[in-house]
TrEMBL record:
<feature type="binding site">
    <location>
        <begin position="347"/>
        <end position="350"/>
    </location>
    <ligand>
        <name>ATP</name>
    </ligand>
</feature>
<feature type="binding site">
    <location>
        <position position="37"/>
    </location>
    <ligand>
        <name>(2R)-3-phosphoglycerate</name>
    </ligand>
</feature>
<keyword id="KW-0808">Transferase</keyword>
<feature type="binding site">
    <location>
        <position position="37"/>
    </location>
    <ligand>
        <name>substrate</name>
    </ligand>
</feature>
<feature type="binding site">
    <location>
        <position position="119"/>
    </location>
    <ligand>
        <name>(2R)-3-phosphoglycerate</name>
    </ligand>
</feature>
<dbReference type="GO" id="GO:0005829">
    <property type="term" value="C:cytosol"/>
</dbReference>
<keyword id="KW-0324">Glycolysis</keyword>
<comment type="pathway">
    <text>Carbohydrate degradation; glycolysis; pyruvate from D-glyceraldehyde 3-phosphate: step 2/5.</text>
</comment>
<comment type="similarity">
    <text>Belongs to the phosphoglycerate kinase family.</text>
</comment>
<dbReference type="InterPro" id="IPR015824">
    <property type="entry name" value="Phosphoglycerate_kinase_N"/>
</dbReference>
<feature type="binding site">
    <location>
        <position position="152"/>
    </location>
    <ligand>
        <name>substrate</name>
    </ligand>
</feature>
<keyword id="KW-0418">Kinase</keyword>
<keyword id="KW-0067">ATP-binding</keyword>
<comment type="subunit">
    <text>Monomer.</text>
</comment>
<feature type="binding site">
    <location>
        <begin position="22"/>
        <end position="24"/>
    </location>
    <ligand>
        <name>substrate</name>
    </ligand>
</feature>
<dbReference type="Pfam" id="PF00162">
    <property type="entry name" value="PGK"/>
</dbReference>
<feature type="binding site">
    <location>
        <position position="202"/>
    </location>
    <ligand>
        <name>ATP</name>
    </ligand>
</feature>
Length: 391
């Protein structure tokens, strides 16, 4: 049950509505190269336009150094959005100040305005009340639809709610409903699959999921740290030596739930054309590194996934950017897609892996926010959600 008000619970007709979207998309040579996050915002934008609202969109893009850096301009994104909706999309070359105020005042009902990158101002990340107030002065209502930024307390995600009625958009609602269900009351068996390079990014998530899930299946570079914590030499594999104690403690805590790979694919260099061998889990020879889970692990994990009613997956099983070391990740994607379970892919690299595998349409929910979905799975309240009005 989604406990926050959404745009359906508030009168938006003929109002100026400022929507915080997550338009932090990859841009190559001035052109948007992946429009997933833009399309994810369309239901909210279209609903507001149907209600004859004047829609003002704000977002960050990339990591400019708190100043104007035009390689991070949202102008190409505004132009791209104009190809997806019938309305003309206007662009303001600042998100606050006279330029933004003038553009917002001139905006008519049924029109769309995109503001320039909020991170061109240092005040954004400081959640500065003055910037939040300036953003709020542009509109009558604030809508947060940027799930991917909801874990940050910034001026445009959290601070602004002090000055305007604040509700959720449809994407925010959908994300929280799926991820919230997993945390509150998942259908069982509930299987969590965690991969990616680092254990350190996911310690809190592993701890929380060991309490909630029936099985936690580990793969990817983070498995190496668990192997070393159990005393296996891992050759030249990526390892986080500073969290070996934590890894040991997690293995003890999850004695009957935490599953590690039983075999692995090792390579003599970090390249797609490296010589590779498959070996049972154990000491890795010097000069070799683990780059994927092996076929026996795939079989064992796929068996667990096949019986699941809920599956959450975050992080690839190997270096899937190299086609020769993508087999484990793609096999797990196939197992999840065929399981018939409610399946949730939690942002980041696992999303590109599922897209590459061509199975995205068989997944129940693909999250648009890596960091935000991880914090939810860790049980942390998201600042950009907490500030919205309760139903």
């Amino acid at each position: 049950m989604f406990a926050k008000k959404t745009i359906k619970d508030i009168d938006v007709t003929n109002k100026k509505v400022l929507v915080r979207v997550d338009f932090n998309v990859p841009i190559k040579d001035g052109v948007v190269s992946d429009d997933t996050r833009i399309r994810a915002a369309l239901p909210t934008i279209e609903y507001l336009l149907d209600k004859n609202a004047a829609v003002i969109l704000c977002s960050h893009l990339g990591r400019p150094k708190d100043c104007v850096d035009l390689q991070y301009s949202l102008k190409p994104v505004a132009e791209y959005l104009g190809t997806l909706i019938p309305q003309k999309v206007l662009f303001a070359e600042d998100c606050i100040g006279p330029v933004a105020e003038k553009a917002a005042q001139a905006l008519e009902n049924g029109q769309v305005l995109v503001l320039e990158n909020t991170r061109f101002h240092a005040e954004e990340k400081k959640n500065d009340p003055a910037m939040a107030k300036e953003l709020a002065s542009l509109a009558d209502i604030f809508v947060n639809d940027a799930f991917g930024s909801a874990h940050r307390a910034h001026a445009s995600t959290a601070g602004i709610a002090d000055y305007l009625p604040a509700v959720a958009g449809f994407l925010m609602e959908k994300e929280i409903q799926y991820l919230g269900q997993v945390i509150e009351d998942p259908e069982r068996p509930f299987i969590a699959i965690l991969g990616g390079a680092k254990v350190s990014d996911k310690i809190g998530v592993i701890r929380n999921l060991l309490q909630k899930a029936d099985q936690v299946l580990i793969g990817g570079g983070m498995a190496n740290t668990f192997f070393k914590a159990q005393g296996y030499p891992v050759g030249d594999s990526l390892v986080e030596d500073d969290v070996l104690d934590v890894a040991r403690e997690l293995v003890e805590q999850g004695s009957n739930k935490l599953r590690l790979p039983v075999d692995m694919v090792i390579a003599d260099k970090f390249e797609d054309d490296a010589t590779q061998k498959t070996m049972p889990t154990g000491p890795v020879p010097d000069g070799w590194r683990i780059l994927d889970i092996g076929p026996e692990t795939v079989t064992a994990y796929a068996k667990e996934i096949a019986g699941a009613k809920t599956v959450v997956w975050n992080g690839p099983m190997g270096v899937f950017e190299f086609p020769n070391f993508a087999k484990g990740t793609f096999a797990i994607a196939k197992a999840v897609a065929e399981s018939g379970a409610v399946s949730i892919i939690g942002g980041g690299d696992s999303v590109s892996a599922v897209n590459k595998s061509g199975l995205a349409d068989k997944i129940s929910h693909i999250s648009t926010g890596g960091g935000a979905s991880l914090e939810m799975l860790e049980g942390i309240e998201l600042p950009g959600l907490a500030v919205l009005q309760d139903k």
